[in-house]
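Possible regression after last week's pipeline update?

I re-ran a chain I had predicted before the update to compare outputs. Posting the input and the new output here so someone can diff against the archived version. Not blocking, just want to make sure nothing changed silently.
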Amino acid sequence: MEWLTVISLIVIGVVLIIVEIIFVPGTTVVGIIGGILAAVGVIFSFNYFGDTVGWITLGSTALLSGGMFYWSLRTGAWNRFSLKSTMTGRVNEIDTTSLKVGEEGKAVSALRPMGKAELGGKFLEVTTLGGYIETGTRIKIVRVSSNQIVVEPVI
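New output (post-update):
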């Protein structure tokens, strides 16, 4: 039972450290928890089995961890998990000079306070003055600034 505890703590600790390095870099919480678990596993091996087995466990854990890190990063084993695509789109890449204050359109999605609307035959991201506008409601442009189109319902 003691070996199961020691091995489990060390394996879970090393896995958390790998997760920190590869998947969640910069948070440090996962890596710190992993380091603590691995250290506790080594300390338990000292307490349960004595100094000789403790030192052997510490050395083998360090060698195996270093070897795993080297192998995984050197062979590109983690490449299948990495993001390879980039986003190229932007919000409202339009010529805002074609839109005029007072121009009317229709809310294509619920605007709470942001959503999509059809204005001048184009589907655009719009913002309300803070209120909620149902889908299908007639709207008009109140303000156009850089990449923000502010609308309100037509009364």
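Follow-up from reviewer: compared with the archived run. The chain has a mean pLDDT of 86. Marking as no regression found.
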